[in-house]
Amino acid sequence: MSQSGRIEIDGLMSREAARALSDRVLKMSAAEQTRVTIVSSQNGNTRFADGSITTSGEADNMSVTVTATIGRRRASATTNILEDASLKRTVDQAVELARLAPEDPELMPELGPQTYSNISAFVERTANLDAETRSTAVRRAIEAANSAGKAAGQIFTAGFLDYNAAALAVATSAGLFAYHRTTSANFSVTARTPDGTGSGWAGAGARDWHAFDSAAIGRVAAQKAVASRNPGTIEPGHYTAVLEPQAVNDLVPLLGGALNARNAEEGRSAFSRAGGGTRIGENVADPRVTLYSDPADPALLGQPFDNEGLPIKRIVWIEKGVLRNLAYTRFWAQKQGKQPTGAPQAGGLALTGGTKTTEQLIAGCERGILVTHFFYIRSLEPRTVLQTGLTRDGTFLIEKGKITKSLKNFRWNESPLLMLNRLEDIGRSEPTDAGRLMPALRIKNFDFTSSSDAV
Amino acid sequence: MPINLTRRDFLKTAGAAATLAGSPLALAEPQSQTLEAPGADPFAIELANEALNAARSAGASYADVRVGHYRRQSVATRERKVTSVADSESYGLGVRTLIDGCWGFAATSRMTKAGARQAALNAATMSKAARDVHKRPVELAPVKPVQGTWITPVRKDPINIALEEKVALLLATNEAALKVQGVQFVNSSVEALREIKTLVTSEGTNTTQTFIRLSPAFSATAVGDGDFQSYDEELAPRGEGWDYVESLNMPGNAERWASLAAEKLRAKSVEPGTWDLILAPTNLWLTIHESIGHATELDRVLGEEANYAGTSFVSPPEKMIGQLKYGPPIMNIQADRTQPGSLSRVAWDDEGVPADQWLLIEKGIFKDYQTTREQAARIAKLTGVNRSHGCSFAESWNAVQFQRMPNVSLMPGDQDISLDDIVAATDRGIVIRNRGSWSIDHQRYNFQFSGQAYYEVRNGKIAGMLRDVAYQSNTPVFWNAMDMIGGNSSYWMGGTFSDGKGEPSQASSVSHGCVPARFRNVTILNTKRTA
Fold it and tell me: What ipTM goes with this model?
């Protein structure tokens, strides 16, 4: 820290620096209660298309949010100008906005000291994924795709590799201090055949970028592109669907909104019971299905606390098909006599219940459609969590346990909740992204509503 | 409000859009007492020059520096309470370098000479690393260097409006909505942004622009008979001042808006099948955005978005320009970054290219794409246009600029036809108002949209409200089925604060003006599903 009060950051903010900065800001505040949230981030990405790196970038940033409370009035202000004068201005702004804000009958006091699980979600080599290493990984993916796609001619590839490293700290005037560091990296490749009739995709995400192999991702994308050439058409309708884990990862997290306890108790969620109350204790999915969040699970490594500094613990939402828990904010939990859970998915999300591979799910399918992943998913009907969207980059017909031909893409209208009641089989859960563990699923009567010409 | 709207009631309801529109094609520009454009901050220029020098020393043949200072303020309310009040500022700079035809970009919030220099060196390192994976060198279309300042013409900067006034307006809105029987939940909010952006390039451009944008929102939910229905009013975000929010008269209109949520509970579930569709501008703007705006982005056509937002059916350019029959001769689609009140209005884009206005589709035939400096040359031989259309934009100082959508609008027809005239000329159809759900495939063919309020048309008259409606079609089929469009006085401009594209995804703000239009024989789905 220089004499002018400017905070010099080099790399991510350490626990000690976060504590020193939050102490300094807390001291500036004249509010009855104050919360300071500090986010320090570093990220870099390499994007490519048609054999060339295109719009890529690196950025670092650090911001301080001050939340001031006066009586039952609360407001927040944020700045990323980390000089004393600007920090003081931000504190004053939060205090002034709080004074002006109307009383909030649902306001909860800031939390005091808490105990958190120690979660190692920070991987040094992910935080150091520099431009040259990224270029090399991209080149390997393109070369692998070119070689795997040779049968179709010169394959077109486009993709994206990025890493994020972040440190998050929350401190309150009531003595709470929480600090957490995390990394994540993602890589995905889309391959297209030169005749314009085939497209394939593969991707992965993890806290440790060594968890995925860029060449393998390029190869799978190209193999799917080649296999998906010259797609055939079948009538839209209800078919058995085998969803690869990445496709399940596109759909199941959309249940998150419905897991809000207040919405359920107020009669506006799929988990509202007709006539009042919630569906806790009822069967809401196939008895093989368990859905949970757990920041300490080594396969998830989620965030140990939420924005208010509330510890996030393991919560089983659906256990063997039965709805067990809903997400309670601190206010709603107090009002209803429940334990607060914090934000539903900050602790990651896992769907479990099976042991088979995707190939075994395909082998057990008499006639159905294999889906690589989905695109442009939007809510249609909150009462049933009904969504619409499209299949993309590898949609295939399965007959008698084998992939027999590629199909044109479909638009579908389907609910991630209702579909979990029509399970034929559930695969082995695998990491699909940082903080996500999802299986392949085989689902009866998936509603494919129309055909799409998009390749 | 009665369950079955009379024709007179419907006129009133549908007319709400027209009262927002102001004069046709362009919203009235505030004529007096608009705020003055701030000049460049000398400190920002000093840091930008430091970064440019470092970039040149590192071998950059071209470099640009954007210094951005963003202020955002949002107030959100629910029923009789404020759910959040937040104010944020973000300040930093981003440097883009071109070395051996390869781009690099780096950004920092460390606003010191050392921080600016380091960002330039990081960008140069990225340019050099990119040489390892490189096929086609970047070539920039020429642009005349420009120096100047500009500000969105507004009388009242929304950031400077007292919080009490914002809160009072929203709570009065909620109170009015809660008067409606069955309406239990109401959300209203307003978000305001002031962005000061300085661009300095190695070619001599030096501009400072101040953009003011705001986005109001209203939603009501009615609960009854074990069911719930919501209604969102389409309150277009605009590049305007606080006077715009005042002109919406949210407290005066909220009861009428909320009554539509209650009425939806009792509306008839739609009979799926083929119907003639009459889209109000409050619904059609988003269909234009998705099926025309995105389809005519040149970066998608060239495959640069293939891994994320997708490609486009308007491809390859040599078979499309002057040839693709996008729609009927009454269809003219204009791209425009000069339109008053619009969200993507600028004086210069993020490469210093002056704001442009051009036709994407003329009399139904596809004519041109959206371009940036590095894209212009790729299609110049086909279009005869050698310069960029000025579509470069970055959401913040910490994100790289790339091709983003200008305002894309459906121009009015020659005759002064209103939405009611279209209803009167229709035997069996459905009128759809406001945006509901939207989804379109990655080449922009197959789409499915819904709305907030649906009305059945029988023999030229409104026969009552419907629910559970979605329309599904294919872009060229849909636009070629358009047979009737509104005139000047029915023009209205919608828009969004959050159009997503790029990896990592960046949000941009864009407006779409349009008139009501009729589409023949469109597939209508019933979205109610129970198992």
Answer: 0.92
